[in-house]
Inverse folding.
């Protein structure tokens, strides 16, 4: 058909949600560092509060700079809208708290970032939200864990620490058979590598601190709604989502699913969760993340290109026992990665040194370009040795149960000249061998 | 609000959004009629405003769209009869009729079939005839999701509709595309896209209907509308002796220019525009 297409990814990364500022003509997105916005009249104020008009009232709930970021990430993900949050953790909390409360239950992949596991296993359980953890590839376990009070299924597109690839089409189908939404953490893949909504996920979030920002400067999160999940139908079948389909006394008796067929979840998340929990993003942070997103397509291509070179180098090195990267045939999810991640598997992965904890430590300390710190997704290459840092209290047996060996090293490959990265690794591996 | 409405297939359940307040037929009524591949949710900001400012509001889902039961109806005339049946079911004798795009043709036709029941006719993002290209109809028949993408790309005048709809943070292109796709997928026995766009294309009674309309009419157009370009509304506006308001917007005026559209509606309903004379 000789029709018109929606804009492409690279165009959206630059333009979605932004236009020249009507007040000043500024072409770049202005930073609206203001707590609040002047009402035109008392009637205008009342109609904004009552959601008879769209607009900004107070920057905890919405802000023009943040709105550009929200629209842009939603556009890149193929979503209906988004909410910027203070961190990725805040985005996860907001997603769960919008539809779950005391007595609710979540089924989550066991291959999660430690912070997410902590939130689900320890913290939310104190507030009455229980979580069952299942291996991401064990579909029978996903099904078996679902209870009448389950509110969502949750996993990471690429799981921690072994880069388990979440089979989103299959897990989404399990969720939908049970009238449940699937939430995914898409931080490691970014929309450039995978758009989870196209595979059936309903909600997703990013730690925008990582690749979206891309420069290791700010902490932030973005929660995105596909708009595809039919909360009314799910409530009719299961009675589960009355938070969105029945009048909410906490906001003008609003029935969110009546107000917006495709934005009900985000309306409640913003009008309740952002309002009451208050984990909002600074407009300055939003602006910096927008700067990062403008070059996301270029950066991700280079991240993946560099990662492949490093993976190939390490996989062929005598001092390396194994490399956990799904593009390698040795990875258990290699076939799934080829199907779901044709552009690549990102630039964060782990490998195992042959040797002791001491040799792992020596390797880290010999690196010059790789920065030893607790982050990923920076334009600079990063490294961490879990056995001597994040998991140093564990003995070797406990480490093994967590999928971590004494010589496990996690790398986040940046945008440097790849030959320099290989030189750095080569030299450090030699130092480690002598340690 | 759920209502039982008479239609071609008998009485069926219909859904109408009432603006976040209980419906009171004793108040001045205003009915908002959505366009092709849409549902009531395109009107919720305006509907809430009018419901909280002294009006009884009905923003129905047309049959086959959203929460109203039944197959989609296949002509503006049939939809106009259904709309008048909805007013009967709600106990509304007369109302302001506001329609967008395909909904504007339905509102026009309803106002002509029951001139005594229409207090004011507002046609938003309209054209007459509302011709649809054969290429789009063919695409709608064979690949409706590609056709949806094409319509979506033409529905907005920019990649940045501020302050967005129904609130900040919504990506208008994505929300509109998702709504259309959901409505299309919900119809297992009908091609909703094809039905709606054929309804627009086939309507030929506009000038005759305009001659029977007895109430004042306002036509609200988007200066950058690429679906129903402003000049395509000139003939019907002239026939209706309508007041024309042009806003800085594309076709999706409710989401691209909600405040300006509200101002236009308030102005229209408070002005003393003369009714057309034949």
């Amino acid at each position: 058909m000789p029709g018109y297409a929606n804009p492409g990814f690279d165009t959206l990364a630059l333009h979605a949600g932004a236009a020249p500022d009507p007040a000043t003509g500024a072409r770049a997105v202005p930073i609206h560092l203001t707590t609040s916005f002047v009402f035109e009249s008392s009637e205008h104020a009342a109609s904004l509060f009552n959601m008879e008009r769209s607009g900004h009232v107070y920057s905890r709930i919405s802000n023009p700079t943040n709105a550009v970021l929200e629209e842009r990430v939603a556009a890149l993900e193929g979503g209906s809208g988004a909410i910027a949050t203070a961190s990725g953790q805040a985005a996860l909390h907001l997603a769960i708290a919008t539809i779950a409360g005391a007595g609710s239950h979540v089924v989550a992949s066991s291959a999660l970032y430690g912070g997410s596991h902590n939130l689900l296993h320890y913290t939310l359980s104190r507030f009455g939200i229980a979580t069952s953890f299942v291996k991401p590839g064990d579909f029978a376990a996903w099904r078996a864990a679902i209870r009448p009070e389950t509110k969502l299924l949750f996993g990471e597109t690429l799981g921690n620490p072994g880069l388990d690839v979440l089979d989103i089409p299959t897990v989404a189908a399990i969720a939908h058979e049970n009238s449940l939404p699937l939430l995914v953490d898409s931080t490691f893949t970014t929309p450039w590598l995978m758009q989870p909504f196209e595979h059936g996920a309903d909600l997703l979030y990013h730690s925008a601190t990582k690749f979206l920002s891309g420069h290791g400067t700010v902490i932030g999160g973005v929660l995105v709604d596909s708009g595809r999940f039919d909360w009314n139908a799910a409530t009719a079948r299961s009675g589960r989502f009355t938070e969105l389909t029945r009048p909410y006394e906490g906001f003008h008796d609003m029935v969110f699913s009546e107000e917006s067929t495709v934005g009900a979840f985000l309306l409640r998340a913003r009008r309740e969760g952002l309002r009451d929990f208050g984990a909002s993003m600074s407009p300055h942070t939003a602006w910096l993340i927008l700067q990062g997103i403008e070059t996301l397509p270029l950066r991700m291509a280079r991240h993946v290109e560099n990662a492949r070179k490093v993976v190939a180098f390490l996989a062929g090195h005598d001092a390396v026992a194994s490399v956990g990267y799904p593009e390698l045939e040795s990875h258990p999810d290699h076939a799934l990665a080829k199907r779901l991640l044709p552009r690549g598997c990102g630039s964060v992965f782990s490998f195992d040194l042959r040797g002791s904890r001491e040799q792992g430590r020596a390797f880290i300390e010999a690196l010059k370009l790789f920065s030893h710190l607790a982050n990923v997704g920076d334009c600079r290459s990063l490294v961490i040795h879990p056995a001597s840092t994040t998991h140093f209290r564990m003995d070797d047996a406990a480490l093994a149960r967590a999928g971590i060996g004494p010589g496990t090293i996690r790398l986040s490959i940046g945008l440097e000249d790849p030959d320099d990265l290989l030189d750095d690794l080569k030299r450090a591996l030699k130092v480690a061998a002598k340690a | 609000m759920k209502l039982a409405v008479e239609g071609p297939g008998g009485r069926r359940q219909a859904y109408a959004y009432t603006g976040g307040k209980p419906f009171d037929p004793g108040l001045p009524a205003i009915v908002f009629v959505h366009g092709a591949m849409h549902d009531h949710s395109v009107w919720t900001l305006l509907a809430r405003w009018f419901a909280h400012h002294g009006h009884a509001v009905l923003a129905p889902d047309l049959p086959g769209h959203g929460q109203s039961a039944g197959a989609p109806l296949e002509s503006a005339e049939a939809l106009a009869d259904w709309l008048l049946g909805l007013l009967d079911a709600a106990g509304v004798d007369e109302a302001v009729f506001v329609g967008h795009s395909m909904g504007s043709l339905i509102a026009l036709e309803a106002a002509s079939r029951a001139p005594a029941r229409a207090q004011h006719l507002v046609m938003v993002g309209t054209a007459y005839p509302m011709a649809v290209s054969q290429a789009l109809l063919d695409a709608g028949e064979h690949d409706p999701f590609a056709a949806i993408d094409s319509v979506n790309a033409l529905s907005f005048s920019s990649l940045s509709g501020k302050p967005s709809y129904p609130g900040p943070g919504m990506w208008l292109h994505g929300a509109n595309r998702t709504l259309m796709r959901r409505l299309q997928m919900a119809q297992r026995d009908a091609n909703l896209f094809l039905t709606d766009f054929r309804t627009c294309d086939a309507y030929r009674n506009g000038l005759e209907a305009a001659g029977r309309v007895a109430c004042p009419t306002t036509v609200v157009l988007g200066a950058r509308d690429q679906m129903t370009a402003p000049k395509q509304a000139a003939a019907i506006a002239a026939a209706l002796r309508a007041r024309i308001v042009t806003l800085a917007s594309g076709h999706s005026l409710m989401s691209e220019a909600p405040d300006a559209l509200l101002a236009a509606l308030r102005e229209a309903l408070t002005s003393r525009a003369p009714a057309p004379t034949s």
Remarks:
- Chain B has a mean pLDDT of 96.
- Chain B touches chain A through 48 residues (CB under 8 Å).
